[in-house]
Design goal:
Elements (H helix, E strand, L loop, with lengths): L1 H15 L4 H15 L5 H13 L4 H14 L2 H29 L3 H25 L8 H15 L5 H15 L1
Helix pairs in contact: 1-2, 1-4, 1-5, 2-4, 2-6, 3-4, 4-5, 7-8
């Protein structure tokens, strides 16, 4: 039964989310933390952090870890990972056949024009979901957040360098 719940949940997540893994974060949190209670809020926040520094898309890494935790097996991880990837695979097979033919049509351009701000909103929502009391509990956390933001925004530092620097700073500070 858990495998079926994992499959349906992550298939739905994969089907109804646009914009990649970061846009999925708030939807995944709602499903796995609030609806099914497969992870706690603290565990989810940790999984998001680990998913960002491990190879592969964030949404797939979240699905894999959640599936493993919920089913307590590698099969749970495999089911959740397959389920989150399957809708995109099917959609790309169908869309790729017609996209090249109709990509310059007003309807297709209108759809993509409408999706762009929605994706930005979903990514912003994911950032706000992660801004909770468990992540910003003291001035040190706020200082690390501000430093990371400035490093990326103003100085155009790469994410790997920022993550490594913040990890080292966190080790020293905490």
């Amino acid at each position: 039964m858990i495998y079926w719940k994992l499959f349906v949940t992550f298939f739905k997540i994969g089907l109804f989310n646009f914009g990649g893994g970061y846009a999925m974060i708030s939807f995944i949190q709602n499903e796995v933390v609030h609806k099914h209670a497969w992870l706690t809020t603290a565990e989810f926040t940790d999984v998001v952090a680990v998913s960002q520094v491990t190879p592969g898309p964030v949404g797939i890494n979240l699905a894999t870890y959640t599936g493993y935790t919920a089913a307590d097996s590698v099969w749970g991880a495999a089911v959740a990972t397959l389920a989150v990837c399957l809708p995109s695979f099917i959609l790309m097979l169908v869309v790729s056949k017609y996209f090249l033919k109709y990509r310059r049509s007003a309807a297709v351009e209108g759809v993509f024009t409408g999706l762009r701000p929605a994706v930005i909103g979903l990514i912003a929502a994911a950032a706000l979901v992660l801004c909770n009391a468990e992540n910003f509990v003291d001035y040190k956390s706020i200082l690390l957040f501000a430093a990371a933001f400035i490093a990326v925004w103003k100085y155009k530092m790469g994410p790997i360098a920022v993550i490594a620097a913040c990890g080292a700073a966190g080790f020293v500070m905490y």
